[in-house]
Design goal:
This protein is mainly alpha-helical. Helices cover 64% and strands 4% of the residues. It has five helices and two strands; from the N terminus they run E-E-H-H-H-H-H. The chain has a two-stranded antiparallel ribbon with strand order 1-2. A hairpin with a 5-residue loop joins strand 1 and strand 2.
């Protein structure tokens, strides 16, 4: 079996649930943007020096696969659940308790992993904006929206954790 299928040569792609849609569809744009975020998180994991940060990023990457499947599926129950949103909030609370209080804006780039996490944060924010636009036209899962909203903040906190001596 080849990597190429030729099924997209006419500008369409298949959703996870089998439906064919245009590659220019907003739904494809959203899960493609999440795929970009996953790649940025992967770069951050490759550069991270703290085992805790590497482990946290890997956990996020596994959830991003489920999130992409949610968005690439029609009429199917969510794979991202409220417990996933709550888990992100708990992880953020635990990190924030350990970090010094922010007193100024941060400039990205103090470390390679931190820069990659900041990039991941901005890609997640774009994915969330596109997701909100998709939600104006099509049915989406509310838990996916909340997960994306929390994820950009989590990336910011992971960046701070990676770059701080705590």
């Amino acid at each position: 079996m080849h990597v190429y299928t030729k099924t997209g040569d006419a500008g369409e792609t298949g959703l996870y649930t089998g439906e064919r849609v245009k590659k220019s569809s907003l739904r494809v744009d959203v899960y493609g943007t999440i795929d970009e975020a996953d790649a940025a998180f992967g770069m951050a994991r490759a550069f991270a020096t703290k085992a805790e940060v590497k482990t946290a990023i890997l956990g996020i990457q596994k959830k991003l696969s489920a999130l992409m499947a949610d968005i690439a599926s029609l009429d199917k129950g969510p794979l991202i659940h409220e417990e996933d949103v709550i888990a992100l909030e708990s992880a953020m609370d635990a990190i924030e308790e350990r970090l010094p209080k922010l007193t100024s804006f941060l400039i990205p780039g103090d470390t390679p992993a931190g820069a990659c996490l900041d990039h991941a944060r901005t890609v997640v924010r774009r994915a969330e904006r596109r997701f909100c636009e998709l939600a104006e036209h099509e049915d989406v899962h509310g838990t996916d929206r909340r997960f994306l909203n929390r994820l950009s903040d989590y990336a910011f906190l992971l960046m701070r954790l990676e770059e701080t001596n705590v």
